[in-house]
Amino acid sequence: MKNNVSAVIGTQWGDEGKGKIVDLFSEKADYVVRFHGGNNAGHTVIVDDKKYPFHLIPSGILHPNAIGVIANGVIIDLEVLVSEIENLQANGINLKKKLVISPRCHLILPYHKALDSAYEMIRGKNERSSQWIGKLGTTGRGIGPAFADKVSYNGIRIYELLEWENFVEKFTFQTKIKNKILNTFKVTPINIRKELKKLSRLREIILPFVKDTYLLLQKALDENKNILFEGAHGVMLDIDFSPYPFSTGSNVITGSVNTGAGIAVQKIATVWGVVKAYTSRVGGGPFPTEITDQLANTIREKGGEYGTTTGRPRRVGWLDLEAVKFACQISSVTDIALTKIDVLSGLKKIKVCIDYKLKGKPISYSSCGYSELSTLTPIYKEFPGWEEDITNIRRFKDLPKNCREYLEFIENFLRTPIKIISTGPSREEYIKL
Ligand code: IMP
38, 25, 26, 6: which is closest to 150 by C-alpha? Predict the structure, then answer.
């Protein structure tokens, strides 16, 4: 029997337009669940002219029936979480029975952010900064150092906040160690007293939402509730399957639903792979299909390709189907949501990467580290573009012929059906197939 569990996974370097797809499905969801990453992810939802920026709370919470769950795989910066809670409450959204946070979530603490910046600074000063030893272009949100603490048993969970004395002891111990490291970077140390004062206020605000999310989700599964897992980032940033270290700190593939929320992948009936009609990435690292001429600016401006978390201009490139094929395979994508096709309207020619060659020989994405990805030659197929504005089109057959051919090629190449085509930024601008 097909259950009601689905996941939305980014198949590129993040920023595929997952927010809109999640928003579409949340309408019917009983639970919308974040299961990995932290506030390095983000998108803005606009409802009735009000802007709601989301970095941690699942955006689906705006739908009256949906309960937002922040499950154990997410790392939490309390300041960011509380500002999202306060913003929603100020707009009349009562979160009392609508938000649940796992006590297993690890905290991003002030020293993680300081360390993130310090590592970037020192890497940036390195003269051989062209490869892994150079600046990575992290979001500066403390993600890497917080995950590092989690796996080296130095992390502090939300759980510790339940007993303030425990928290104070652990926080003080860890901050003293981290201050020694910060000192070697000649960075201002963390003021323990000042930070504890801030954290104690934030603690009071979040504690009412803390509850075991594992039991909650297992019960929801038993009751055949509609559960939507909201993926962040994209598979090309996965800590294991990206060109490390140009990665984010968490696993991004569908399998991380299991570790990050406790629901086994076999329970997920539909995995939506979100594919943007071209590619973008922020931060450093190899990008085989990057466009480096004026066309990149045209696409960036038209597609609004600026980071939602940091505001940085995104690098832009052609759709890389060799990489997306890998992302769909590893994440068991069943259905594709193709986004931002409207951004390509008006281009004379559209290219799509269908293969990689290194020193004249084919090589697959999975066999590449950053070195191979930086030097390989992408093999392109070229398509004629279309002139028409397609934002108001609601039926596949009404799309321009060249656009249909581009989409059909993608579908055939990935051997996965495209079920949604987003034709513009607004909620209603999409085609359902
Ligand atoms: P971190 O996740 O802040 O440590 O950054 C590591 C890399 O992942 C950087 O290149 C970031 O720009 C990138 N990154 C992390 N999260 C996202 C995202 O949601 N969208 C796009 N890039 C991301």
Answer: 38
